[in-house]
User: Fold this.
Amino acid sequence: MERYDLKARRIPDTTIRRLPAYLRALMVTGQERITSEVLGHLAGYTSEQVRKDLAYFGAFGTRGVGYDAGLLADEIRRILQLDHGVRAVVVGAGRLGTALVRHTDETASDVSIAAVVDINPEVIGRVVDHLTVESLDKLEVLISEREIGMGIIAVPPGGAQAVLDRLVASGIRAVLSFVPKALTVTNPDVFVQHIDLTLEMQALAYFVGQSHPSVR
Assistant:
């Protein structure tokens, strides 16, 4: 199987975002071999999009035969650096933060939550699933000791930028932010993904109106 070199070419962010969907489809298909058409259908994309995305990383399939599902899943997991597992820290042990910890633990994700921190003395010391909420003051130490590579921000907007700055200064290069405001990062090697649940629901309201024109 032809290997790829991530450093040799720039992979579009949109392609990287689709890879987990392909991986999930491969894990549930139950087939030893799978075509780009079937993989695309399961993942919600076209066969052309599947072939284009995978071509960035090498030659995985055989024309007319398809892909070896197991080998392709292993390759995608390696591309995403999930083969060794990724550890994350959740900053903010409120309802959203604790829900994220429980969800990740229940789904046995390749990304595991290794620490939960908060600034509230009433929350510090509580147990969320298998983790004890620890003080935000220990953030840098926890990242180093537990070899954490990803940060998840679930704090009020006012303190979010300071949290991001500390994560970046500690060597974190991938951050998932649930804060309803844009955060600033100057390091080009740091990727921050913003998810604003309110904006997502407001956008979905459009489709409610399309299905039920009388709803205004």
